[in-house]
Structure formats: structure tokens, C-alpha cells
Amino acid sequence: MNSPEQKTILLVEDEALIAMVVANTIKQFGYKVIIANSGEKAVEFAGKNKNISLVLMDLSLGKGIDGAEAAKQILSERTLPIVFLTSHDEKEYVDKVKEITRYGYVIKNSGDFVLESSIKMVFELFDAHEKTRESEERYRRIIEELTGYFYTVHIRDGKVVKITHSEACESVTGYRSEEFKASPHLWIDMVFPEDRRQVMKYVQRILSGKHISPIEHRIRRKDGQIRWVSHTPIVQFYPMGNLISYDGLVKDITRRKLMEEELRAHQAELEIQNKELRQAKAELEASRAELEHRVAERTEELRRANEELRLEIIDRKQMSEELKKSELRYRNLIYSLPDAIILHDGERILSSNPAALRHFGLKDKTNLIGKRILDFIDPGDREAVADSIESTRKTENITWVTKVKLVQDSAGFEYVECMNSIVDYVGRKLLLMSMRDITNRVSMEESLARTRHQQKAILDNVPDIAWLKDRESRFILANKPFGEACGIKPEDLPGKTDLDIWPRELAEKYRKDDREIIQSGMGKQIEELLTDKEGNIIWLETIKTPILNDRGNVIGTAGIARDITLRKQQEEQLRQYREQLEHLVEERTAELTEVNKLLQQELFEHKLTEEKVQKLNVELEERILELKTFNYSVSHDLKTPLIAIEGFSRILMEKHSQLLDAKGQHFLDIIYKSTKKVNELIEDLHEFFSVGQKAIKSSTINMEKMINDIITDFKTILPDDVFTVEFSALPPAYGDKKMINQVLVNLFGNAIKYSKPKGAAIITIEGRVKEGKSVYSVKDRGIGFPMECADNIFDVFERLHGSDEFEGTGIGLAIVKRIIQRHGGDVWAEGTVNEGATFYFSLPGKGA
Question: Among 257, 258, 188, 199, which residue's Cα sits nearest to residue 233?
């Protein structure tokens, strides 16, 4: 038996939309489908397409021949199983079907299971009939080989439609089987004229279904000889009693006829011939008995099938009222769908349901049928829809366009989802397009995308590693620093877990942290180690917090981690440096003790002056004081809590400030500014001590160019009317460019800052060479300072004004002093209250 995908079904239905729905249903069963919309088309397709294996025929086909007449014409040309598809089950329709086909009918809208089962049953019955016919053909050939030749007469509606002769016919008649086929009346023309009337009556008796005996008559062979032949008919009937065909066994009995005069003389020879005849007859009877047994078995199978069909008809009659309305409901189903259903040829619209009019904002089909389908699509999406149509046309596969914007006057349907599929309709390959309104879904997706974009923008602007996870520890968002640390692009991280990114032991630790936060609803702050994508081990200071929804339920976790590897390294260096200094202090103390002893012992010998000893002690005290100051700042480890305070206060100000009243917002602002100020102080301290550790890379410096660059940089962040700078030709300097640039930037910043109360800052820069040194001055006309403060103005944390008056940490001038002193120069200042201040520094020349 052929598999479903190898079989083609001809569907004859004049209702276009019903035909397309039924065709799609049959295709789901695995069959190919060809649609004909009239009886004439059905006859044409069945005659031309030899691949058609079954015909599903609607009885009522509108204009032209009906389904019954079309079925008769098809069966007159070829043998095909035909099943009628109708909404009627009255007796007159049942009887009409039984007269035409043995395969019955299927009530429309009986369900996919009934339709599929009926098709399978018809194919099985047809295959059984074919096997029976093949079996009969085999037996016919056997009999043909035993004696004479065999011919078969095929009957349809009581009329002869075809006669076939076996190859052995030539030995009896002199004519080949091809000649009988080419000349349908040759079989009667070769009958001897005096015997033709008898033979014609004999044939009519066979066609009328009467039981007849063999007949003997004369024929004229092709070579002109007159021969006697005998005909033995074998008649086959349908189970309903209609004649299917009859087979004739033709034997040349000329010799027997000639020998009848010699029967008495040759009795013994005749007995032998009679014995052979009886034996052949017995073999024929045995073959016939076996054939009749097979036919009886198949007849019983058909009887049972008919009984099942009869019971099914009885059941269907109980639902007759509903079934009469089923065809109308079937048609209304398509017309009531909210999705637009459009039949088109790839360019023009041929048919549609009412939903298509609603989608396009039209009131009448006349404004839709025959129009170009792309005219209803927004120009920006026409190319995608055209590509989908072309792909479906070429491949006959279903194609989708997930988001299509309709023209703006389309009754509010802004976005739709399109599907194109191919259908066979009246011998043409057409396309079926469905459109579903997805405007609300697109709106929600765009809203979600905006939210995700905002979250991503926040994370991307955080310089530290940051991420968001859901309750299952799947990443929702992560910023660029996170991607750089793990070696995965941020856009590829959503949906992944820590197990997909980190080594299992580390991933399990992270997942355990997530579970603790989700269960407790409390955040945590830890310092931990991480191995990045390049194998480097780095220290992170991590803050993990729960994410709550509007109802206060935990829906995920958020995290931010700052790389503190440098701080850890500096702490370790400071610890080692502290130990080393303590050791040096101990050694120096021991040395000084020993020196003092030696000095006491050798005081009169060496005559060391008290001034030299005092100077040595002052130098030692200064170094110890610097060390204590530095150790004090670092030992308190201010930066660790400040990171969390500043980060969370910034998040509260940006995203949750509306939850606080004015007083709360004021306090939050104070917290944020205070932590920011302390953080700036720590950074300045770090810069101050870094200046003392960095190696000096000296080179010749074009001071005029450096000042112009600094002016340009300040103007990019300050308005043009905030300051003006005046300077003439300046001598070049020799020193570290970055450090000298830092000196000028700090002096510029101070001049601008302390000139604000008096308006725009006017800065004057001068330079000269004196005693082998380059001397420079930066003068402003700001608030100035009393000269009694000139000696300690360059000390660390020395401020002449409160932080509420002027911002700053009091370390900028200390940095200036340290840089200039490391270069071997001097720094000093002159000032007058409310008149301004001038800051000087000198640098040794090259080779000094």
C-alpha cells in the first residue's frame, strides 16, 4: 500500500473558502490535494493527471454538471475510487450515491477523524478490489496457457467499455491482440456471417446477467480459413448484483468438428480427447471454486463494511437537524475569525473574510478585491512582505513576517503578524495570507525594551562591575565591565547562569549568596577574589542587594563590585613599608643612641656643634611626622564604606528620591555630598603621597604651549566669562611634564576658585630666568590672604577658609610644594586680603 504522501486526492468543491479549509485538513493527513471548483474541471483534471488516486466529490456544484454526472464521466474513462462529500443524508441521496460508486459518502463537518478514517477505508477497499482483479488476471493466464486463448469484456452500466484479448489469440484467429485493440469490432467481423446473429443474441444474454452455457460457432481467420471455435464465459458481478465483466475461453474445435464423422471409427481416440476435456474442465472448475471462495471472502468483508456504514448513517440521522446547519456554520467559521484571511495571487487580492475589511478600515469589499496587497502595507515593511510572498511561491513552504505596520488610515490596527501559505485552487497555485493584530503586544514589547534600555543605561554608566539577576539566578542585564571580566559580551549574558560563566566552585558560591539574599531579603557586602578571563586574580569589593517588586516581594538580586586590587596591593605595600620604616626607625634610633654615646664620649675630640645635632633631629622628626600622617590616613581605610555610601545614595537620589519628603531629600543630599567630599580628600591624599613615590622623567617643557593647553581644557568645562589669562613670553622649563602640568592646573584652579566672590578671574602669568633657575608666577585678583599665613599655606590640610565657603580638601598646594621640592626648586606665596595673591615656583635648569 502506498504511503499517504505518495497519493494525490482530487477535491471537487465550488465554495472557495470551504475548499481551502478542507484541503489544508487533508494535507495534514499527509496527502497531496488538487482542487476543482466545477464538475467539468473535475473530469478534465481526472483525465489528465494520472497521479490522482481518489476523488472527494461534492454532489451539489452550482452551475454545470453536478457531482453525480461528473463521477459517471470520470468512471467511464478510468477506474478511480470516488467518495461523495455532502451535507445531505436523505434516502434519495444515499440511493443516488449507491448507483454510482461502491465507496459511499462522507457528511461534511463530521470531524477530522471521520474524514481521515473514511479516506483510509476507501483506499483499503480499492486496494482489495485491485488485488482481486490481479488475482483473476493470474487465473485467467493460467487457464489461457492450458487451452485456447482468453479474452475479457469490461462492463460499465450494462454496456461494453473495453475488450482485451490474450497473446494466444493469434494461434486461433490469426489476428494479434494489438489488432483487436485497434479495431473494437474485429471480434464480431471475423464471426462467420451465418453465425453472427446467434453470437449477438448470446452476448446480449450475457449482458442481461442470465446464466448461459458455452457456445460453438465458426470464424474466418485472417488467412481466410474457416475454423470452428467454442466460447466458455465466466461472469463476474458486484456485490450489489451489477455485472462487472465476463471472461471468455475460446478454443479452436475445427478438428473436433471434422472428426465427428469419424467418431465411430475412432472411438478410442475420442474417449482420450473427452478425458482430456474433462480433466481441463476439472482444472477450470477448481480454479473457479478458488476464485469464488476469494470473492465470497471479499464480499463478506464488504458486507461488514456496509453494515458499519449503515449503523453510522443511523447515528448521523439522529443529528440530522444539526448537520443540516453544519455547512452554514462551517462557512461562518472563516467569516467570523478575528484574523484577516486573504486569498491572493502574489500581487492582487482575490477574496477575503470581513476581518480583512476591519484591519484595513474599509466598509465594502469593492475597495479591497482586485487591489494590490502591498498598497495596504507601510512602505517600510513592504519589502519584507514581498520577500515572504516570493519565498512561499518558490518553495511552497509557510513563511512568516512577525511584525508588519499597516498604513495609518487602517482603523487603528497599527501592527500585524503575517503568514503566507500556498494553496491549490481550481488548478492554480494561489497564496493564502492571514493577518493577526499584534499592536498591544508590540506596545508592551517596546515598553519592556525601554525599561531594559534604561536599566542598561544605568549599568553602563556605572564604572564598576554591575549586574541584575532573576530569582533563578539567571542574568537579566550586565554592564561592559562585567563582560570584560568574564570574557562574554554583555548582550550575550541574559539567560545565562553563573555555572555558564565561572568555574563550578566559584559559581556555586555566587548562587549560594543569591539564595541567602532572596530568602532573607537582606543585602550583604563582602571582599572576595575573582579570576578574570585572562587568568589574573583580582580583589573585588562586592555589594549584593535584593530587588523588590511593588508588593515588596523579592524578584531577583542586584550586585555591584569594585576592583580594589590596587588598594589591596597598596595596603600590602604600606604594611611592608610601615614594617620597613619601623625597622629603619629602630635601626636609626639605635644608631642615634650609639651616636649620642659616641658624641658624649668624643664630644671634646670632634667638637661637634649643637646646631648640627639639632638639624639631624629635625630631619628625623619631619620624616617620622610624614610617616605618621600617611599611616593614619590609610589605616582608617576610609574608602571601603564610602564606596557603598556614595553608590547607594546616588541610586536613591536618581531612582527613589520621590519616596522621601523634602527633609529626607535634604539629608540624603548632605550624605551624598559629604561622602563625595571625603572621597575627594582620600584621592587627593593618594595623589599627594604618589607624587613622592613617582619617578621623575625630566625633559624640556614649552611652558607657553602647556599653559595654552590648560586654558583650552578649562574652557571645555567652564563658561568663557569665568576667567581670562594674560601672559607674555615664558622661558622653557626642565622637569617632569605631567608633574609640572599638575602644578599649573592646581594654581589655575585656586586662582579661579578664590576669585569667584569678585567676579571673573583675571590671571596673570610671568616667567624669568634668575641665577640659573627658571622662576614662574601665577597672580590673581581674588580675595587674597594675610602674609602671616604665607609660611604654612603649603602645608597638608591647611585651609584659610571653611569648606562651606570654598570647596576643596586643602591638599592642592601641598602637592604643588612636594612636586617643586622634588625637582630641586622652591615655592612661596605673597598675598593681600581682598586684593589678590601671587604664587611663585622655581625650577633648576638642565644639568643643575
Answer: 199
Q: What does DSSP say about strands 82-86 and 105-107: parallel, antiparallel, or unpaired? A: parallel
3-state secondary structure of 477: strand
Query: Of 176, 279, 271, 281, which is closest to residue 230 (Cα–Cα)?
Result: 281
Give me 467's grid cell: 549586574
This prediction's pTM: 0.29
Q: Supply 373's cell numbers.
A: 496587497
Q: Indicate the burial class of 793 (C-beta count within 10 angstroms; 0-12, 13-18, 19 or more).
A: buried
Cα–Cα distance for residue pair 778/800, rounded to 1 Å: 19
Query: What are the two backbone dihedrals, phi and then psi, of residue 319, each rounded to the nearest 5 degrees?
Result: -110, 25
Instruction: Sort 555 into a burial class: Cβ within 10 Å, 0-12 / 13-18 / 19+.
Output: middle
Confidence check: pLDDT of 223 > 90: yes
Run of H or E including 538? strand 537-548
Neighbours of 100 (CB within 10 A): 20
**Cα–Cα distance, 224 to 571 (Å, whole number):** 130
Host H or E run for residue 724: strand 723-727
CA distances 140 to 126, 150, 152, 249, 607, Å, are 21, 7, 9, 9, 151
Smallest Cα–Cα separation from 757: which of 781, 777, 779? 781
Q: How would you classify residue 785: left for phi > 0, otherwise alpha for psi between -120 and 50, otherwise beta?
A: beta
Q: What is the mean pLDDT of residues 803-822?
A: 74
Question: Which DSSP letter does residue 491 get?
Answer: G
- Summarised one tens digit per residue, pLDDT across range 456-488 is 666 666 678 888 889 898 998 888 888 888 888
What does the alpha-carbon distance between residue 749 and residue 778 come to, in Å, rounded to a whole number? 11
> With contact defined as beta carbons under 8 Å apart, do 785 and 800 qualify?
yes
- Name which of 145, 153, 151, 167 is nearest 283 in CA terms: 145
The three cell numbers locating residue 253? 474445435
d(CA 823, CA 742): 13
> Cβ(594)–Cβ(601) under 8 Å?
no
Q: Which amino acid is at 147?
A: T
Helix (H) or strand (E) holding 531: strand 524-531
Grid coordinates standing for 516?
Answer: 541567602
How far are the Cα atoms of 67, 173, 179, 231, 321 from residue 169, in angstroms, in the given order?
Answer: 41, 6, 10, 13, 60
Smallest Cα–Cα separation from 752: which of 836, 817, 678, 818? 836
Element (H, E) at 382: helix 382-395
The whole-number pLDDT of residue 355 equals 82
How many helices (H) does the chain have, and how many strands (E)? Answer: 24, 27
Q: What is the pLDDT of residue 2?
A: 46
